[in-house]
């Protein structure tokens, strides 16, 4: 449990530090090269969700805060009370999702927007931040975890069905 708390706190701290840095170094409209030809640093305030969904909607912030809070509470419940059901991949996925969600929730609650600063230059894409990276990687890992878990469960079911074939010692 302590490792979970420390891990989440460290990732949230990294996210908040990078947003503070971006605000101090890039606000209001500066850009800086990061990975030439791939990515630049560009200060953007996002009052919406991913890809600016709900942007500019007065009710959008409250909706995002409520939905994010509910999801984060559900993930915390799993991390603290259902941990034994997860393997390392599932655990890591949920840690990343939790930390990223908390990082962006802090911004929404305190400021009414999220600071984004990673901007791709090779393709038109949404500007994003460290918390978004945590959530995105966490979701991909969670999908891999789920697919892997379902595959293992299917193999176990097939094996169990093979062992219960007719005449396999059922006492008749």
Automatic annotation (TrEMBL):
Pathway assignment: Protein modification; lipoprotein biosynthesis (signal peptide cleavage)
Active site per the UniProt annotation: 116, 132
Biological process, per Gene Ontology: proteolysis
One Gene Ontology cellular component: plasma membrane
Intracellular or extracellular location(s): Cell membrane
Regions crossing the membrane: 62-81, 88-106, 126-147
Broad class of the protein's primary localization: membrane
tRNA processing listed as a keyword: no
EC nos: 3.4.23.36
Family note: Belongs to the peptidase A8 family.
UniProt cross-references to NCBIfam families, sorted A to Z: lspA (TIGR00077)
UniProt function note: This protein specifically catalyzes the removal of signal peptides from prolipoproteins.
Name of the protein described by the UniProt record: Lipoprotein signal peptidase
Gene from which this protein is expressed: lspA
């Amino acid at each position: 449990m302590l490792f979970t708390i420390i891990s989440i706190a460290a990732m949230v701290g990294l996210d908040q530090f990078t947003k503070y840095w971006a605000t101090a170094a890039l606000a209001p409209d500066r850009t800086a090269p990061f990975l030439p030809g791939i990515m630049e640093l560009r200060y953007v305030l996002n009052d919406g969700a991913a890809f600016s969904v709900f942007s500019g909607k007065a009710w959008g912030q409250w909706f995002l805060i409520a939905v994010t809070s509910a999801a984060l509470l559900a993930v915390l419940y799993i991390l603290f009370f259902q941990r034994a059901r997860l393997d390392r991949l599932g655990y890591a996925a949920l840690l990343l999702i939790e930390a990223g969600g908390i990082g962006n929730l802090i911004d929404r609650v305190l400021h009414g927007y999220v600071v984004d600063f990673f901007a791709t230059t090779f393709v038109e894409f949404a500007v994003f931040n460290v918390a978004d990276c945590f959530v995105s990687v966490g979701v991909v890992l969670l999908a891999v975890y789920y697919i892997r878990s379902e595959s293992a469960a299917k193999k176990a079911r097939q094996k169990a069905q093979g062992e219960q074939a007719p005449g396999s010692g059922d006492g008749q």
